[in-house]
Amino acid sequence: LHPKFTNAGTALLQIQGFDKLHRLCRGRKTRVYTELSDSQIAEQIAGENDLTALVTDSEFVHPYMLQNNLTDFHFLQFRADRIGCELGISGDELVFRKKPYYLTPVITLEYPYSLKWFFPRMSVSGSVGTATVIGWNPESKEQIVGIAASDALAGSMGEAFGINIADEEFGERNQVETRVPSVNQTEADQIAAGILQSLALEWIQGDGEAVGNTEIRAGEVVTITGLGTRFSGEYYIDNVEHSVSPEFGFKTNFHAVRNAS
Fold it and tell me: Can you list the alpha helix ranges (DSSP code H) found in the chain?
């Protein structure tokens, strides 16, 4: 609650609301998890905060995991970013999953009608066809190498992956990551796939404004038409703001990404 008591004699009250993800931000914790995967840890934290869990099984079980003076939110956000997952809330569900950019679009936005404006940017800079993660197994004293190519991605949002187009035009490139520790082949492969997915979804990024529509939500896929062959197609929504004002009515602003063209 944010009241404003002005010298004009009129009191104003501003009310701000949060989704239930705020429960994970209350208080820092230091604790140890043993013999649990990242997705199982997400399920445990969801239960502790009276939430159900919508998770993608992360498969690899960690013998030991330390949450070191972090809120549950910052700890899970770090674990999600590490393996290419997203963290969020949908109603009463804690979401810890791979970005579902392969889902069926929930709505079609047509420029210049239901889509008022859209500013996309396609960039070859930073595009690589493969990602490699190099780790170390302390038990076997052996190097671990995780490699991900486009076949590790869940699906193309167009005719061809942007990372493959870049390789064909400018030669094959590989991104090597040595700063993210991995101690198991499954974990190294997951991290490599997460890195490649993030790079792939940078192929086309854009900001837009649509006629207000609550079906446009973060975590959903939309189809955009009217932008020509290269920029029309499916987009994954990763950020949305709905607003209502006397001047502009109900409008929806969003940021969207795409891995193909």
Answer: 38-48, 72-82, 162-170, 185-200, 228-231
Exposed e or buried b per residue across 206-235, where buried means at least 16 C-beta atoms within 10 angstroms of its C-beta: bebbbebbeebbbbbbbbbeebeeebbbbb
Q: Helix (H, G, I), strand (E, B), or coil: what is residue 132?
A: strand
Q: Is the peptide bond before 112 cis (omega within 30 degrees of 0)?
A: yes
Other beta carbons less than 10 A from residue 110's beta carbon: 14
Residue at 65: amino acid letter: M
Q: Which residue carries 């956000």 as its tokens?
A: 77
Instruction: For residue range 88-128, list pLDDT tens digits in order.
Output: 998 899 999 998 998 899 999 999 999 999 999 999 888 89
Tell me the C-alpha distance between 28 and 260, whole Å: 40
Contact by Cβ (8 Å): 96, 39: yes
